[in-house]
Amino acid sequence: MTKKRTGVFVCHCGNNIAATVDVKKVAEAMSNEENVVASEDYVYMCSDPGQNAVLQSIKDNKLDSVVISCCSPNLHEKTFRDNAKRAGLNSFTCEIANIREQCAWVHKDKAVATEKAIKISRSAVRRAGRDQALEPIAVPVTRKVLVIGGGIAGIQAALDIANAGLKVILVEKLATIGGHMLQLSETFPTLDCSQCILSPKMVDVSRHENIELMTYSEVQEVNGSVGNFQVKIKQKPSYVDPELCKICDDCAAVCPVVVPNEHDLGLTARRAIHIPFAQAIPASYTLDENACLGLNPVRCGKCKDACDVGAINYDMLPKTVTEEVGAIVVATGYDLYAQEHMNELGGGQIDDVLDGLQFERLCSASGATKGHVLRPSDRTVPKDVVFIQCVGSRDPANHCAYCSKICCMYTAKHASLYKHHVPDGRAYVFYIDIRSGGKGYEEFVQRIMEEDEAIYLRGRVSKLYRKDGKVRVLGTDTLTGQNVEIDADMVVLALAMEPSKGTADIAKTLKIGRDKDGFLAEAHPKLKPVESVTAGIFLAGCAQGPKDIPETVSQASAAAAKVIGLLSQPTLSHAPTVAKVRNSHCTGCEMCVTACPYNAISLENGKALVNEVLCEGCGSCSATCVRSAIEVKNTTGLQIQEMIEACLA
Amino acid sequence: MSEQQAEVTTDYEPRIVAFLCKWCSSAGSDLAGVSRIQYPSNATPITVPCTGSISPNYILSALKKGADGVLVSGCHIGDCHYIEGNFLARRKIHLVKELLGFVGIEQDRFRMSWVSAAEGAKYSQVIKDFVEDLRPLGPQTKVKAGRS
Ligand SMILES: Cc1cc2nc3c(=O)[nH]c(=O)nc-3n(C[C@H](O)[C@H](O)[C@H](O)COP(=O)(O)OP(=O)(O)OC[C@H]3O[C@@H](n4cnc5c(N)ncnc54)[C@H](O)[C@@H]3O)c2cc1C
Ligand code: SF4
Ligand code: SF4
User: Fold this and answer.
1) B63 C-alpha vs ligand 3 centroid, how far in Å?
2) Across the interface, do A643 and B49 touch by the CB < 8 Å criterion?
3) Which pLDDT score is estimated for A597?
4) What is the pTM of this model?
5) pLDDT reported for residue B78
6) Among A residues 529-588, those touching chain B with beta carbons less than 8 Å apart
7) Which residue of A416, A490, A501, B34 has the lowest C-beta tally within 10 Å?
8) If we measure between CA atoms, which residue out of A616, A615, A507, A573 comes closest to residue A222?
9) Residue A497 CA, closest ligand 1 atom number
């Protein structure tokens, strides 16, 4: 290795550094270092004359690396690196020695501060002595985006991205987009009709020239990396051609098979051939092959005969497509924690004990009872209804440890909707405490308590059982210390939200992490809330954690903005300080493969191979490799060793 | 404590190498600076991308090169910029401590701390405490190259 020609530039920072550090002495000490051919000090290195002095010195002294002893790299590393580049140097051969925040500002004694500043500067000089010239890695991009999940999160993200001119493939596993929001009656805190605000957006999706909608589909395989993912999507056959289907219902009218309707959470029934609900997008019937008698005229064939336009085709096959996309938004949403888990509350076996979404379907004008609140067992108007909050939430010992965040709000909404339907009824709410942090939320809950006269009881319910045609509710009111017994006509459980079924699989397919509760994990809890840990994969909606519609939409738009920003560049630039393998040392033990949090390392021909686009340069691999075969560029083991020496010399 | 020992501990300034992760602890020590919180100058910082990148080798090597103590400071568990690097680091501490015991060095010469970018005061406290705790141990001579 040829000897480096390093220049050191020590900044006074006015008096900020110079008051406690003898800058001349530091510059002088550095001039004695092996590689150093120029060492200067100046009052303000970051000023124009300061930068020009560095520039000039680089040229005059034919420097190939520079060290600036100054403030924290967080402040001016970029300034000095850009300046070095202007002088024709590679910007990665410019190192910063932080002698202000980490030295001058925290010590008083000039002698010791100067000594430490020398160590810090020397350490940077040693590092620069082995710095390699590096070029940012240019990654080409595909200007197309995959959005997984067609709930409000996926819909919002898809529309935002498509409106920015990028192509979108929206993949939804069910036969219609809309997600859980479609099942809601009215929405807190404004009580506007859920379908009325959602349906127009669904129509926008279906008509958007930049959106390709794939319902009844799932993502099977994802390869590649940011800018260039290859995704394999499998579409199940719906056996009905959506182009031809007139949504006349002639087929369903003759279908002999009756099964519970998922959209109404089993409160109503549907046929094997059905439309999930009237305004479904795509607007077409779907034949549920699991319910059908056999997709075969010999077995049944009634629907096919009934369809005048010949839209039904029993021979339709699954379709698999492979697409190239630059970025992915995951919006796979939530499911409710199953009642079956709640043994103390009947385990889903007691009539007239419903979950929150079922209650939404009871209130909805398009729902099971056409908007009349009737109890399922005997279709009578319930006069005493008990709502129980935090069912399955905040119970680390038995159920979910986390707060589902929205149940306080939707329970208040439920109590209100109920009172509007049954003004002479009584609504009881059992709660642990009320969490109503949101714009207009606290006022909303207060209004339900005061104007709608919902009876709020602070405490847990210990038991539910059927007694004389009613549901007996045993609980305690912890504010009065009294036991409470209510004979309710109906009970509504605000069950915890959990990641939708299949979240674990999709996380695995995408190679992104999940948190301790199974939701998809964001890259940083504060600063990267919509990024997954994998570059180019973003998160939106309840797949990332429980949230309400406003927060879901904000997050979806944020994810869309990130995607648009990312793909607006012709090529992506990735920091070149990535890991590098020395093949001669690598034994293929795969220790690094497991250590890498980004799945950036694979084994090719028995040697570790780093995907430079995926590598974030964390160095976890280098610390695990016992043969020092893998190291991060410009933070190599040799560099660290020499820096250690410099600190102790 | 004998007079001789007392003498040793008073005029001895422990030399510390402090490995700080770029995202949390180095930023935390910057904040100590911005807040002008004073602390002893014994520790010279080396900023690394992540505590997960610190091999036990570096720690031993620092002691060999004459450090009296080695500090590794990173993000709090769960806050790691690189997902789980600090978690890897935590698992490694155990190993390092055992290694130190094995070669006959006081395990207290190695310390790990979690300092976030917002914890300037904590960083200065970590340094103060470490310096004080190293004093009674006296200079580290066990593995220092060139000494016996
Ligand atoms: C009882 C109840 C009442 C509520 N009331 C309100 C309210 O009044 N106001 C309010 O703001 N919020 C309310 N919410 C919350 C609201 O439902 C959610 O905030 C919102 O629906 C979240 O949207 P999402 O798109 O993230 O998830 P979802 O609505 O769950 O959508 C996810 C979509 O992804 C699809 N999907 C899942 N996995 C895959 C896969 N692997 N591949 C392809 N597609 C997949 C699903 O089929 C679904 O269509 C309520 C929630 C409940 C439970
Ligand atoms: S840990 Fe080292 S030796 Fe093992 S595969 Fe990775 S680079 Fe090769
Ligand atoms: S430096 Fe980090 S991200 Fe890069 S290959 Fe090594 S472990 Fe993976």
Assistant:
1) 27
2) no
3) 82
4) 0.75
5) 63
6) 533, 577
7) A501
8) A507
9) 53
Q: How many CA atoms lie within 13 A of A528 on its CB side?
A: 18
Single-letter residue type at A312: I
Residue of A nearest to B64 (CA): A645
Among B62, B61, B53, which Cα is nearest to B15's? B62
pLDDT category at B5 given cuts 50, 70, 90 is very low
Here the ipTM equals 0.91
Distance (Å, whole) CA A184 – CA A193:
8
Residue of B nearest to A106 (CA): B38
Q: Whose CA is nearest to atom 2 of ligand 3?
A: A618
User: For residue B27, is it within any domain?
Assistant: yes
Domain membership of residue B32 (yes or no) is yes
Q: A128: Cβ–Cβ under 8 A, 6 or more apart, which residues?
A: A4, A6, A35, A65, A66, A67, A93, A94, A95
What is the per-residue pLDDT across B46-91, written as a single tens digit (0 to 9) for each? 999 988 889 888 999 999 999 999 999 988 776 666 656 666 666 7
Task: Give dist(CA A224, CA A325) in Å, integer.
Answer: 10
Structural domain including B15 reads: 2-137
- Phi and psi dihedrals of A386, rounded to 5? -105, 125
pLDDT in tens, A134-188: 999 998 899 999 999 999 999 999 999 999 999 999 999 999 999 999 999 999 9
Q: Closest partner residue to B50 among A73, A104, A620, by Cβ?
A: A620
User: Shortest CB distance from B36 goes to which of A73, A105, A623?
Assistant: A105
Determine the residue of A188, A332, A416 to mutate for testing ligand 1's pocket, defined as the one with the most ligand atoms within 8 A of the Cβ atom: A332
How far apart (Å, rounded) are the C-alpha atoms in residues A95 and A33? 15
Q: Which of residues 84-143 of B touch A (CB under 8 A)?
A: 84-85, 88, 92, 124
- Arithmetic mean of pLDDT over chain A: 95
Output the residue whose Cα is nearest ligand 3's atom 4.
A615
Residue nearest to atom 6 of ligand 3 (CA): A621
For residue B39, the domain's CATH number is 3.40.50
B12–chain A Cβ distance below 8 A for any pair: no
**pLDDT of B2 above 50:** no
Q: Which of A74, A123, A635 sits opposite B30 (nearest CB)?
A: A74
The domains located in chain A, with CATH, are 6-134 (3.40.50), 144-235+319-333+500-566 (3.50.50.60), 250-306 (no CATH), 334-498 (3.50.50.60), 575-633 (3.30.70.20)
B145 found inside a domain: no
Tokens of A258: 């009756």
- The helix (run of H) or strand (run of E) holding residue B102 is helix B85-102
- B3 to chain A, closest Cα gap in Å: 27
Q: Which residues of chain B lie closer than 8 angstroms to A632, CB-CB?
A: 49, 53
Angle made by CA atoms A431, A437, A442, in degrees to the nearest 5: 70
User: Please, what sign has the CA dihedral across residues A202, A206, A207, A212?
Assistant: positive
- Answer for the pair A239, A287: CB distance below 8 angstroms, yes or no: yes
Mean pLDDT, rounded, for A279-287: 95
* A-contacting residues in B 59-88 (Cβ below 8 Å): 61-62, 65-67, 78-79, 81-85, 88
Please state the domain count of chain B: 1
Q: In chain A, what residues touch B95 (CB-CB under 8 Å)? A: none
Q: Does residue B148 sit within a domain?
A: no
The rounded distance, in Å, linking the Cα atoms of B80 and A186 is 41
Q: Say whether pLDDT at B4 is over 50.
A: no
pLDDT per residue as tens digits for the range A302-328? 999 999 999 999 999 999 999 999 999
Q: CA A320 → CA A154, A217, A235, A317, A507, distances in Å?
A: 21, 9, 6, 10, 20
Residues 87-106 of A with CB under 8 A from B: 98, 100-106
User: β-strands A217-225, A228-235: how paired?
Assistant: antiparallel
